[in-house]
Design a protein that fits this description.
single chain, 457 residues, alpha+beta, Spore Coat Polysaccharide Biosynthesis Protein SpsA, Chain A, Jelly Rolls, 3 domains, 11-stranded mixed sheet, 6-stranded antiparallel sheet, 12 helices, GTP binding, isomerase
Length: 457
């Protein structure tokens, strides 16, 4: 069986810890593991191989976290833009053999009952071998209005239901034959593609065209943006599952959560005797039932209850428990004032390492840059800014126009505006330097890449 991990989504409901370029599946919230890594570990026992469908901007983050687990080499399918789950799954199916059984799993869900999960997967695999399209229905333990529902008659799916109001959700739970729609599936590659072609032929045809035009190398299948944009954005539910006559459901009581809000995150984290989440950076006096997440700062509370306090270097959110679904609305407001704050943290991950913004004001920006051993930034220039580099530790091999030289600790160089330049760490330890940018415009899009080892545009 091949496991297909879907890594789409921007994770806005867990902002500010989750950003567009660093979504929740890669945030290490669980004993220094991410949801993406937990997904990989959960499926190692029965996965012949992994296919990871991922935004091209997050490819190296996904690759790094996979390598940390020493997991089997995986196939990455890089999306330049997202087009929902039906095209994403189609790409994985096109990349597989027709009779391969695919287990489709989101990368950002939490499943706490491993043995029950494995039992459910085995049942799904058996049904998939009989040419069924299998979905996993989560047994509801309360009336949730934030999930879609599956109405079942034994293993057969009678209907899919949209997110209900509270009264309708109560009826579903009492009826006993309704399940939460988990977004997990299992089927043969050819069966899914046949049903996609039958019920959403335009999505099938354009997805097939996009896949045949993809650039394939040893590390990834790189989809072309112009082809991808032409695909109609559609979910697998709308495109196939709600129309096909081959759909079965496997009921699953597996300790599942999609972690779609801070309220659901609170339920999963360990807590002290007063119901406050445990963290080394918090002190509570007379406080109860609070979620507190902090990057660096000490957060102290006195006599408060039922709060969500989420603190990062550049943003803090304070909300009442039960109101955190409104975070998505908050993100929309933040975008009006500072779109970068919704896209990326002050620390950003790149294929070659990381950079952290230390100071930013009109006309200048100061960063700490860390380059991993053997890594190299792109050969590039800027239209609007000059840069100063000061080495803190390690040795920097620097190219400026036609000159290449080494900089050691406490040595520096100046890169004029429009000068072609590159940074390379040839050592076996991290290179750390301070970069001071000065100019009229300091955005990350003022980078003209002439050559790049990581095939970025």
């Amino acid at each position: 069986m091949q496991v297909v991990i879907l890594c789409g989504g921007s994770g806005t409901r867990l902002w500010p810890i989750s950003r567009t370029l660093y979504p929740k599946q890669f945030v290490k919230l669980f004993e220094n593991e991410s949801l993406y890594q937990k997904t990989i570990k959960r499926n190692l026992s029965f996965a012949k191989s992994f296919s990871v469908v991922i935004n091209q901007e997050q490819y190296f983050m996904g690759l790094d976290q996979l390598d940390e687990l020493k997991a089997p080499k995986s196939q990455f399918i890089l999306e330049p833009v997202g087009r929902n789950t039906a095209p994403a799954i189609a790409m994985a199916a096109f990349a597989s053999k027709p009779d391969d059984i695919l287990l489709i799993v989101p990368s950002d869900h939490l499943i706490e009952n491993q043995s029950a999960y494995e039992d459910a997967v085995k049942k799904a695999q058996e049904l998939a071998s009989q040419d069924k399209l299998v979905t996993f229905g989560i047994k509801p333990n309360y009336a949730e209005t934030g999930y879609g529902y599956i109405e079942a008659n034994g293993l057969e799916v009678k209907s899919f239901k949209e997110k209900p109001d509270a009264a309708t959700a109560e009826k579903y739970v009492k009826a006993g034959n309704y399940f939460w729609n988990s977004g997990m599936f299992c089927f043969k590659a050819k069966v899914f593609l046949e049903e996609l072609k039958a019920y959403a032929p335009d999505v099938y045809e354009q997805s097939h065209k996009t896949f045949t035009h993809a650039r394939v190398d040893q590390s990834a299948i790189r989809l072309v943006k112009e082809d991808m944009v032409a695909i109609r954005s559609e979910s697998i539910d709308y495109a196939v599952m709600e129309k096909s006559k081959k759909v079965n459901v496997v009921p699953a009581d597996i300790g599942w959560s999609d972690l779609g809000s801070f309220d659901s995150l609170y339920e999963t984290l360990p807590k002290d005797e007063n119901g406050n989440t445990l963290s080394k950076n918090t002190i509570h006096l007379g406080s109860k039932n609070n979620l507190v997440i902090s990057d660096d700062r000490l957060i102290s509370t006195i006599d408060v209850e039922d709060l969500m306090i989420v603190d990062t270097r550049d943003a803090i959110v304070i909300a009442k428990k039960g109101s955190t679904q409104k975070v998505k609305d908050l993100v929309a407001e933040v975008k009006k004032h500072n779109v970068e704050m919704t896209n990326v943290h002050t620390t950003a991950h790149r294929p070659w390492g990381t950079y952290t913004i230390l100071e930013e004001n009109p006309g200048y920006k100061v960063k700490q840059i860390t380059v991993r051993p053997g890594a190299k930034l792109s050969l590039q220039y800027h239209h609007h800014r000059s840069e100063h580099w000061i080495v803190v530790s390690g040795v920097a091999t620097v190219t400026i126009d036609d000159k290449t030289f080494d900089l050691k600790q406490n040595e520096s160089c100046y890169i004029p505006k429009e000068a072609t330049h590159r940074l390379y760490n040839q050592q076996k330890v991290d290179l750390v330097l301070i970069e001071a940018q000065v100019g009229t415009y300091l955005g990350e899009d003022d980078i003209v890449r002439l050559q790049d080892d990581y095939k970025r545009n």
